[in-house]
Design a protein that fits this description.
seven-stranded mixed beta sheet; about 300 residues; Helicase, Ruva Protein, domain 3; alpha/beta; Rossmann fold
Length: about 300
């Protein structure tokens, strides 16, 4: 079978059989096939990168391997776990079961944080803490976009921190992004950062425990539960973060965190209960849903 016929045949198969989730809108039958094609050709990359590449010819053994990886995808293994790559804010990142796969929706969190930092105090160094850093995607996006930012990032999972460290090294940002393993803000309490931080960012686990058993198996069976299970109402960690962030933020500093669908109004009210915060704003996505809360310290 020639290469064009092979591509068309496999695309038809994926179009008929592939189950796609709305949390990864960049994944389509064609982008999936292109990413897997490049993987077996020896150039692993995200779907975003694969869509812009001319596909090389595959030999017989590579075609056999392509059939195998396509079947793994059809069996429900996340594409990013097969390719080992995911794109976030235009950055190619390593991805795997060690941490939550970076989502397109979280780019709103990173973009909101970057906009605030760019409007801040000129070119002097700004200090940012990113908790629940996962693969390091938000921390690295900030460091890449804001050259005068020094980012301290943490995750409860040592496996996630290891993955984030690999991504930090891949993007040559080890001089400005420092990673720690630990619970929320605890790793930073011995670093003399109290009252010295310009921004705290977080993409917390926000799925309620009751919803976890009925989640898509592609997520619940392959991604780390601690990265998405937010407790009884999905807000346990957010409530802790809101209460503890003022210990570290400087006057006028910002807490910027992602919330789940339908949680925006309630979480804004929770922040407004704390007198430490002078202003609280909600950032909406393209569908008009609040997905990011921005709270500024007095």
């Amino acid at each position: 079978m020639n290469q064009h016929a092979l591509f068309d045949d496999l695309l038809d198969k994926l179009s008929r059989k592939l189950v796609l989730l709305p949390d990864k809108p960049e994944e389509t039958p064609e982008s999936t096939l292109r990413a897997l094609w490049m993987l077996v050709a020896g150039e692993p990359m995200s779907v975003a990168s694969a869509m812009n590449r001319e596909l090389p010819d595959l030999d017989a053994s590579q075609q056999e391997e392509l059939d195998k990886v396509i079947q793994r995808r059809l069996d429900g293994v996340p594409l990013a776990h097969i390719s080992g790559r995911q794109s976030f804010m235009g950055m190619e990142l390593l991805a795997g079961p060690q941490a939550l796969i970076p989502r397109k929706e979280t780019e709103l969190l990173a973009a909101s944080a970057i906009d605030i930092l760019r409007q801040g105090k000129g070119e002097g160094e700004v200090r940012v803490i990113d908790v629940c850093t996962g693969a390091g995607n938000v921390a690295l996006a900030i460091a890449k976009a804001v050259q005068h930012a020094r980012v301290y990032a943490s995750d409860l999972s040592e496996e996630a921190v290891s993955l984030a460290q690999m991504n930090t090294e891949m993007h040559d940002l080890s001089d400005r992004v420092v990673l720690y393993a630990g619970d929320l803000l605890e790793p930073f309490r011995n670093l003399d950062l109290q009252g010295q931080v310009d921004m705290i960012t977080c993409n917390p686990p926000y799925i309620s425990s009751a919803k976890v058993p009925v989640m898509a198996s592609e997520i619940s069976e392959h991604e780390p539960e601690m990265a998405f299970n937010g407790g009884a109402f999905g807000i346990n960690l957010m409530l802790r973060l809101i209460a503890e962030a003022p210990d570290f933020l400087c006057s006028g500093g910002h807490l910027v965190f992602e919330v789940g669908l339908g949680q925006g109004s309630a979480m804004r009210k929770q922040v407004e209960k704390f007198p430490d915060y002078a202003r609280v704003n909600a950032v909406e996505d393209a569908q008009g849903e609040t997905r990011v809360i921005v709270a500024q310290l007095s």
